[in-house]
Write the structure tokens for this entry.
Amino acid sequence: MTILMVAIASVNFVSCGSDEPSSSTITPNEKPIGSGESSSGDDSNDSYQVLTGNASDITDNSVKLSGSFVSTKGKPNKIGFLIGTSSDLTNTNRLRDLVIFDIISSFSATVDGLQSQSTYYYRAYAYSTKNDRYTYGETKSFTTSSGNGNNGGSSTAKGSGTQNSPYNVAAIIEIAGKLQAGEIDATNYYFKGTISQITKEFTISKDSTATFYITDGNATEQFLCNHVRFLHDEGWWGVYQINIGDEVVICGKVTKDKNGDVSTSQDRAYIYSLNGNTGPTDEIEYRIGDRTFRTVLVEGGPMKPFYIMQTEIPIHSDIIVNNRVIRPLSRNGNRVIEKSEFMSFLKDLRNVTGYRFRLPTKEEWQYAAKGGNKSKGYTYSGSNTASDVAWYSGNSNKQGHDIALKQANELGLYDMSGNYAEVCAMENKEDEDVDGPKYGGSWDDVTSDCTISSWKAGKTAGYITIDGEKYSNKYCVDGRYNTVRLVYTKY
């Protein structure tokens, strides 16, 4: 059996096991539509009745689900099942979104990797791209058997497919073997093994490919990896070469096409562990001047966990990481951060750390500014009194100040209110675009502009003039008032 791991570039890859859809899997609506009920009664649109069948072939770790649809007009573009441990099968509670691309009126799917003596809920659904609408069958349940302690009769299959307990090769082969042609298990599985053979060399480019075998001592299968990303930007192959004997952990979805070939879906696959490097699970230390800071893990929010720099970055200061000097954000004495300089700065950081630093989204920035899951609900980042945490127009003496002189917030982050406003990523824009919204206010702003929720639009004019020189505002940040604070994700 050949398992094809296919990966394509994407900034917004979701952490494995997340409740957000990938680019190739459309997640059904959060709010359930009634049994067999479409979200629209318009007869001019596609209309279906969806029935959820009874579960069968129940073992201690697997089950066969069945469903059907009756179409009064048109044909659905996608069918499948939602599975979870609660009857409320919203994104938060579901475990699997099992998508079936072979559109037939009566369909079924085998689900593996379940826990013994556990109750699961499921419902069938159909989706129409014409109306961007889901129709659901009723929610039903089943309970797995007690089993015999050998994971459903296989003594070699191990793991639960999670980050902390990845499947071994034998377990992922079992799951792939039970898929029907045209069926996809849309769950992001983690599985690991040791490289036993490499059959294709790597090239240092964004289109690098790798063909290699992995083994866990019980089973060996071939995996073809295309356009793979290992937490980093293109070129990581040149920094982290895969070698025979390396342990790797792969994350991806498993599907079987109509020819019977097993692969991941048309989404990226990730290798997140090479040579014992499991990625950014610890903070990174960095020095600015003679002071040492770190990146801080932010978790527990509506987005996947991420790391954020403890400080904003002074635009003319060197940053030292891993005893290597990163050039300043702005060079040659300029008081602006130009886009080309910012992109070079990000590239230097990635080359030194191996991690893909980027601008935070506004949601990430605001959640961190609030103090994350340690938030005490302050108006400003770390206090209800602006002067405790912020340099603003009333106390700044009309100038910016050195970083981290004021009180930190609940997560240990400095200057998220006042001093220099911080650029966030624009929606639907690449993360190197420095013309995004500015959050938190600056030394020149009043206190109401320095709250956690305050922000200013990115592009305020076609050009800005600093020290008599004209700059295109589309490609630069006015460093007199603004700067950046970078983040990176765990996986």
The chain has three domains: 18-143, 169-273, 285-489. The chain has a mean pLDDT of 74. The radius of gyration is 26 Å. Residues 339-353 form the longest helix (15 residues).
